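Many introductory courses stop at the sequence. We go one step further.
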Amino acid sequence: MSGPASVANPLDGGELAAFVAAVEAGSVHGAADALQMTPSAVTKRIQMLERRVGGVLFERGRFGVRPTGLGCTVYPAAKRALEALGSVAELVELSCAQGSVDLRLSASQTVGEFLLPGWLADFRRERPHLRPRLEVVNSHGALDAIRENRSEIGFIEGPDAPAGFETLTVARDEIVVVVMAEHRWAGRRAVTPRDLAGESYLAREETAGTRAVATAALAGAGVELTPALEAASFQSLKRSLVGGGFTLISRLTIEAEERAGVLVGLPVRGVDLHRELRAIHRRRPALSPAARAFWRWLGCHTG
C-alpha cells in the first residue's frame, strides 16, 4: 500500500462515506443499502480509502465487518469530516435558492407552542432566508404529516419512539398534576395516585401524546382515570380548571402561570412521568437542504 494521505492527496468524501456507513451498519451490504449503492461499489471505495491511509480499516468475516484499531482511530474524524462536508453542501444549495426557502414542520402542542418558536428564532438568525411553515397539532397529527410527506420534520411527545423513522431527542420534560392555586392540593409537595381517582380529571384528547404518557404511567401504578372533560388545547384545559378538578400536562406549559401564582404543578408520588420529546423524519425521501440544516442544528443545540 502507498503511504498515508497527505495534503497533496486528500481523502475522498465518497470513500469516507462508504467507510462510515460500513462501520455503522456492521456490514458492506448494510452500508450499500444506506448509501443506495451496490456492495461491490462500497467495497471498492473502502479499498481505495485503505490505500490512501496506508492500512487495513476492517476485519472481515462471517460477522460482517468491524473496524480494526486503525479503523477505530479514523472513524470519529471521518464522521466529523462528513458532517462538515454536508454543512458546506447545504450552504451552497441554500445560497443558490431563489428567494426564501420553505421549512415544513409539524409539532405537538408542547413543542410547537413552548419550545419550537425559540429554536426557530435562533436558527433563523443564522439563515434568515428560511421561511418556516409550522403546523401545531397533536403527536398523532404530527406523525401523519410526516407519513404523508406534508412536513419534513415532526415533533412528538408519546411514550415511545415510533418505528421506521429517524429520531432525535430534543428535550426532556415532566408531566405534572395541575390545579388552581386555591385548590386544596396546592400546598402539597406531591399527590398520590389514590388522590387522583377521587377528583375530577380534565384531559387532553385521546390521541394527544401527553395523555398517552400519563395514561401508561398511571396504569403501571394501578390507576385508570375517566375524563370528566376532554379538550384539544392546553389553554382550554387551564381555563377549565377554574371550575375545579385537575389536569395532567407538561410543566413547560404552566411556567408563566406558576410564576404568576395562578396554577400549581405537582408530581405524582411513586409514578415516573418524565419523558423525552423527539424530532422525527422519514428515512426516505432524503430531507431537503433546509430541513437537513435544521436537523443538524437541533442535534447541536437541543436535547
